[in-house]
Amino acid sequence: MSIASRIKWYLDSRGISYECVHHARTGTSLATAREAHVPADDLAKCVLLEDERGYVLAILPASRRLDLRKIERYFHRRLELASEAELRDIFRDCEVGAVPALGMAYNVPTLLDDHLLGLSHLFFEAGDHEDLVHLSGLAFRALLADTPHGEITTTY
After folding, report:
1. Strands 43-51 and 121-125, how do they pair?
2. What separation in angstroms does the CA of 8 have from each of 16, 40, 79, 80, 93?
3. Residues with Cβ within 8 Å of residue 26, at least 6 apart in sequence
4. Burial class (CB in 10 A: 0-12, 13-18, 19+), 132
5. CA 30, CA 25: separation in Å to the nearest integer?
6. Quick one: how far is CA 140 from the chain centroid?
7. What CA–CA distances, in Å, run from 12 to 42, 72, 149?
8. The pLDDT value given to residue 151
9. Regions of the chain where pLDDT drops below 70
């Protein structure tokens, strides 16, 4: 697959420089970091959440775990995990579980963990379990400039 068509369109239409990094097929973000020889702190993983107001995509480092209580405190929302069927419906050009860190490309409101804000570069799923998008931290912050953020994670 290499890169999901919507992600490619979204990045290209905004003039963002990026590269695709191929790796052996993996099933978890920590395994992806190992196979791609990328620090887990520099790999953004995504979790699709929902509540009565709709979906929210949480973006966090692969090295950390989402803390729903922190989200409730920071964003005054009580969110829960969305189902695999919902993932398939929203991210139609992606394999299940290979959600790219660009919710806005799919019209999904996004929350960002503060641990990703200071990175000089980062990686995220390209839409399958064998490829990552690599871009500068500056480009990532520009893409997510209007995204609410906070400390929404804890360590493993």
Report:
1. parallel
2. 10, 23, 29, 29, 11
3. 32, 34, 35, 129, 130
4. buried
5. 12
6. 11
7. 22, 34, 25
8. 94
9. 1
Q: Convert the pLDDT of each residue in 87-114 to its tens digit.
A: 999 999 999 999 999 999 999 999 999 9
Domains, the chain, in order of start with CATH, read 5-155 (3.90.960.10)
Nearest one of 67, 69, 133, 142 to 99, comparing CA atoms = 133
DSSP-assigned beta bridge partners for residue 65: 154
pTM of the model as a whole: 0.95
Secondary structure element (H or E) that encloses residue 134, with its range:
strand 131-136
CA atoms within 13 A on the CB side of 21: 17
How is residue 62 written in tokens?
């692969």
